[in-house]
Amino acid sequence: MPPSSALLDYLPAFGPPHEDELFLTFYPVSSSSSASCHNPAFKTTWSRRELWELSRRFAYVLTKQAKLKKGDCQVHLFAGNSAEDVALRLASVMTGTVPVTVNWDSDPLDRVVFKVQSSRAKVVLIHAKTPLEQVAEVRSKLPGVAVMAVEDMLEHGRGEEGQEAADVASDKDLFEPDLGNDDTRIIIYTSGSSGEPKGVRLSYGNYVRNRETFEAFLLLQDPASRFTPFLANPLHHTNSTAFTDWALRRPRTHLHLFERYTTSYWPALARLALGLPCSAPLPSMPSVAQPLVTAQQSSKLRLVCPTVSRHFDFLESLIEEKKLADVPNPDVLKWVSPVVTFLLGSAPVGPATVERLLKYVGHLPVVRFGSTETCLQVMGTPMDVSEEERLHAFKRGWAVGEQPGEEPGFYVGRPHPPYTEVMVVEGIDPAAPASYLQECREGQKGFIVTRGNLMTGYVQGEAATKQAIHTEAGGWYTNLGDVGFWLWGGERREAGSGAGCGRKKDFYWVTRTSNLLIRGGTNYSYEQITRELTLFTEERYGLLPGTFALAAVGLRVGSEHEDDCLVTIEIQSAEDHGGGNDGRGVSNDKRLEVEKNFVRDAKGCVSKGAQPSRMRWGAVPRNFKGDVNWRVLEADWKATLAQDKDSGK
């Protein structure tokens, strides 16, 4: 029986003549927070043949041991990137099963359980580093869901002579024959900006178009190019998921995967760009590096590094504090720039970030813009125009913020026809036809909408999907939650020039309409942070529900791309209830304890997104329904910050 049409897209990368090529190099992180591709305690490299065989073994266990069938979901409850996660994603193509991701950086126990339940997963996959409390919670709350350890899966199916059962099983037994572009490839959950996170179904067709989009965008359509993704972002994000799937489909690709971001990312990147072994010393002189870079250019190496602005904050600190280990001359990152592309997303790219890249890596970033529902990519800063033109485009957006009462625009580039389309529109509410999907004029702020490579739907059902994708109005996706504007591209605009003159629109991001805080390139919902900090406050300080209200918002205060987490707490004082000890209020002593210790205590106890930057006492504004009015709360904080600035605080 022939393989499915979906699997056929992956076979060229794993068949002759590529099966013995090196495909994956993994960088496990040691207890010293460094990463090495020569860690003797771990296998760190896989050829295509080895990864294929590992994936077949996982496919055997999923189908024969776990009894999964096409369309059944398996939750990947891991605690870091791993080679096994990559192999399981290829195994799911063989079997037709659907991986479901869990955010190991921020998902609390109840959210892990919610994702297992809402995806109707039949199996939860764990590995040695999965937190034991997560495993215990799943087993306790969901006794009907099987929990399987990756390490045990590797041992299943061995015969008496140690022969792998997967090796003797035929492809007919293992491979799902009826799998095509309309079937679900993976489910990735959003951050939950309006309550519970939504499970996004992305199809095989989405990832076909994703590859086509990126190869056109990054000028990688030449099959002889050695596409080399260098990944440190988590595999539970749509970012690393998209690049991993692309690598699995493309011959000659060598995927480099860090267990997580560490400071050793930078020397490892430099060695790879120079073609040096993992343990080789880096050159201190450009005259030594130049011939190595030239050789890499001749071999058509394209090292693509998906990053966020925060990574370059870290890089600057490492260089200034002389903590960039194994790098005798930090200028090596400039010397290798001809073969390295830094692809920035998930947060605004402002003047400080651009300045850092020019200073430390010698060229502008390539900015990408999109969301989980759009299979990562909607638009990006064009690589087929000069650096001078791109820098000018960045500066045009920043200049808008110099006008009285205006916020700056952050350049996010252009869509990728014929794969994606973008508009900035006056309104997205069908009940207001005068503004609904009416395109804004040049420079006018509006809602960013897109179509072209959209999810097949949310796991929550048709109603949630219909609200996001307006099928009857041309298929526009309106749930990006971003406000922006557009300008005609180019440094000069001739009188009367416009769309009819073949000019292209440059798009700019201004702000969010959704309740999200950006930190470390990840979106965290206000509601999620508020729930976590409310629970922390109850447990840490013994405050009873109903005696206080807490709400958190995010605003950029000390950074152009990172939000501060700003917390407002409204309390009922014990004095308001007669000063008694009946628990109906908060005593002055308890109030002083919270005021003194809240920010410090919370940072050691809550997830990264919920770590507070500042706390204040005040009323939590609410709308007529009793829900927190996030826009008013943001405005209140802006007024507070402005007053503090005026008073010199």
Automatic annotation (TrEMBL):
<dbReference type="GO" id="GO:0006631">
    <property type="term" value="P:fatty acid metabolic process"/>
</dbReference>
<keyword id="KW-0436">Ligase</keyword>
<dbReference type="InterPro" id="IPR000873">
    <property type="entry name" value="AMP-dep_synth/lig_dom"/>
</dbReference>
<dbReference type="Pfam" id="PF00501">
    <property type="entry name" value="AMP-binding"/>
</dbReference>
<protein>
    <recommendedName>
        <fullName>AMP-dependent synthetase/ligase domain-containing protein</fullName>
    </recommendedName>
</protein>
<dbReference type="InterPro" id="IPR042099">
    <property type="entry name" value="ANL_N_sf"/>
</dbReference>
<comment type="similarity">
    <text>Belongs to the ATP-dependent AMP-binding enzyme family.</text>
</comment>
<dbReference type="InterPro" id="IPR020845">
    <property type="entry name" value="AMP-binding_CS"/>
</dbReference>
<feature type="domain" description="AMP-dependent synthetase/ligase">
    <location>
        <begin position="43"/>
        <end position="458"/>
    </location>
</feature>
<dbReference type="GO" id="GO:0031956">
    <property type="term" value="F:medium-chain fatty acid-CoA ligase activity"/>
</dbReference>
